[in-house]
Amino acid sequence: MAIMQPSTITVLGAGYVGLTTAALLAHAGYTVYALEPNKARLDVIKQGRSFFYEAGLDPVIKTALESGKFIPTNSYEDSVPGSDVVFSCVGTPDNPDGSSNLSYVFSAAEQAAKLMKQSAVFVQKSTVPVGTGAKIQELFSTINQSLHYVSNPEFLREGTALEDTLFFDRVVAGGDHTESVQTVLSLYHQLEAQRDSIAAIAAITSTEAKGEYIATGLASAELIKVTANAFLALKISFANSIAKLADKSGADVVEVMDAVGADKRIGRAFLNAGRGYGGGCFPKDVSGLISSGLDYGVDLEIMQAAQGVNGSMPGYVAEKLLQALNGNLEGASIAILGLAFKAGTSDSRKSPGVAIANILSKAGAVVTAYDPKANEEAKEDLLSNITLVDSLDDCVQNATAVVIATEWSEFASLPVTFYQQINSSLIIVDAVNKLDKHALAQSNLQYIGIGR
Ligand SMILES: NC(=O)c1ccc[n+]([C@@H]2O[C@H](COP(=O)([O-])OP(=O)(O)OC[C@H]3O[C@@H](n4cnc5c(N)ncnc54)[C@H](O)[C@@H]3O)[C@@H](O)[C@H]2O)c1
Fold it and tell me: Any residues with Cβ below 6 Å from ligand 1, and which?
């Protein structure tokens, strides 16, 4: 089987996924164009850094840029025609009805196909509903029949994007053209061969990785991605359902899940109860899967239930605080610690911390919020009467209650004395279940966990 040996790659869309992918592939020896139409983002990337916070990424971008192998651009004409492989990493937000908005996906594919060279490989990294690749192949057949289409879903997590890409559990590539699928997998073999030197530049330590290379059919590759995310979301919503029962019955959901997750068949990961999932992936991937199921006449009730539980969690957290304040939030001074949808990122898309802050503010509380990385990104989603501050101390001063909404270690590791000096009868709502409830229970402080 003759596998193409690519030398030049274009990555369409230098967002969280595309920028990481492009910078890493440049270190694997390829010449990589990172194509980004958003001027503000591109200007930052051209300075050799990322426009979002991701540990280790800046030095990887900087050294790639300096080597001349990483070329930020906004021009399809300058990048695509000379590329052997074109990755699409454009956004796939959700439509108001929950279905996937594929307008960026189709417009990037069409623009690229018009310029791609003969027999080049178009790789879909964006998360798309099953069946999308077949539609793009149809589109390609009207533009350039020699192009090959491969689905190569992305599994990186923001906050650990470099570890996840370099020390991967699996790489999946699916398509009808076996050689092109193998070409895509060969890029990752090349990356794997360089990973220790890249990890050193990023100052990240290697983690245990299964490192599986999985070739599948096109529809399977598409469905693998959304199924994996849906299952993780399901585990979180399951843990949150049990947390509600634990709250009523006196059990501690952390103890429950530690023991349940000790069973190898189940596993402990993603059984953390709390304020629910958020971010740019899980919410839209779950709603996209429900919607694409309906397109095929399949009612994924189990995912509708997971979505419903998740949607209830910010309100559930607020309700627990309301009860602790004897049903009156009016004028209460509440500090929200954490606006990023999870620790390790500045991303605040669909963040539960933002949702909780807005619910409390609407209910009449005086809300102050702080995040070590996400203030800027969260600003526009917060109600205008919420005060955003630049330090932890400014956030908590004079607080009646503190809500820990993101599991940043700097919040989880705060000593009891920190809380005591704010207010000796402070209410602490641990919406991520990360605090030492026993240590707090010995003080006069009131600790409220989720299912604890
Ligand atoms: N962020 C994650 O953790 C993650 C993980 C796995 C998969 N994904 C999937 O990867 C895809 C990208 O996600 P993201 O978080 O990087 O999104 P993002 O919004 O950060 O980045 C997408 C980029 O594409 C650019 N773009 C839009 N239209 C374009 C076009 N026609 N040509 C070139 N560029 C264009 C945008 O300007 C933007 O910078 C999504 O489908 C997402 O579901 C994301």
Answer: 12-18, 35-38, 41, 89-92, 104, 107-108, 126-127, 154, 156, 158, 280-281
